[in-house]
Fold:
Amino acid sequence: MKKTSLIPLLAFLFFVSCGNPAAKESKKDDSESSSSESSAPLSGIAKTADDAQKRMEELKSLQPISNESLKSVFPEEVMGMKRSS
Structure:
C-alpha cells in the first residue's frame, strides 16, 4: 500500500520540481536589470575575506597548545567510553 502511494507522490514531486520555464526567464530578466545592486554583497564578502586573512595571520603567530594541556581540558571518560589517546 505504501509503495503504491509513494510512486505517484515521487512522480508528482519530480514534475513540480522541474519548474515553469517562463518563470525562470522572468527571474533572469530581473537579475540582469539589478546588476548594480548585486555588487554590494560582493564588497561585503571581500571585507569578510580580508578580516579572515588578518585573523589567520594573527593565529599563525601564536604558540600552539600542548597535548597535555589539551587533554586536561577534556574528561577521561564520557558516557562510559574512555579516551583512546
About this structure: The chain has a mean pLDDT of 79. The radius of gyration is 27 Å. DSSP finds four helices and two strands in the chain. The CA atoms of residues 46 and 81 lie 44 Å apart.
